[in-house]
Design brief:
mainly alpha, 3 helices, elongated
Length: 101
């Protein structure tokens, strides 16, 4: 791979698709934080039915958002890499930190 390959990628800066991608990634970050925060609370309050419901809600919201992101843009983790892919394509997309800004 050529050292300039990152500079030659087409990120389509400013397109509405990129804005939607950033918005969905931000949502995933938010619901992930909420689920993890709740999981830590449940470590010290395992009998809290309200916290367990909250955790389930945000865990499911995260799962759905990751599924949507992966189908529309690119896989976010190994669980969302398509089975029927012909090649290892996720390295060809911008990484999440390359889209920040």
């Amino acid at each position: 791979m050529n050292s300039n390959s990152n500079h030659n990628r087409n990120y389509n800066n400013g397109c509405s698709c990129c804005a939607e991608q950033k918005k969905l990634k931000r949502y995933i970050d938010l619901v992930s934080f909420a689920a993890l925060d709740c999981a830590m609370f449940l470590d010290t309050h395992p009998e809290s039915k309200e916290a367990l419901e909250y955790f389930e809600y945000y865990k499911n919201a995260r799962k759905q958002a990751i599924k949507e992101y992966s189908s529309r843009f690119s896989p976010l983790n190994l669980d969302t890499v398509p089975k029927d892919t012909e090649f290892w394509a996720w390295a060809n997309k911008p990484w999440p930190w390359e889209m920040e800004g």
